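Re: Re: ligand-bound prediction request (bumping)

Still looking for help on this. To restate: I need the protein modeled with zinc ion bound, output as structure tokens. Inputs repeated here so nobody has to scroll up.
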Amino acid sequence: MSNENKVSMEHTLDFLNKFYSNYNCVVCGSNDWTTSDNLYELRKFNFGEISVQNSAIIPIVPVMCKNCGNTHLVNAILAGAIESRTKIGVQNGDK
Ligand SMILES: [Zn+2]
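Reply:
Sorry for the wait, this slipped through. Here it is.
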């Protein structure tokens, strides 16, 4: 992974503190959240075929409730974890 593609945990944690510090888990009511320094991706469903070409992806930061495991999927570009070169997964996003 080049520095150009480096994940910014600082920006991710700032984002999570902004939106999750006063947000209780809808499953168990806890306010104890954690995340991963690995990103994941969502791909367009393609009826069992894996298509890499022309397949838009949404980069994801998982946010997990430490009490019950309820997991939210947050767009990694909007969370500031990475910068988009192509704006994939972000509409009208001029971050
Ligand atoms: Zn929970």
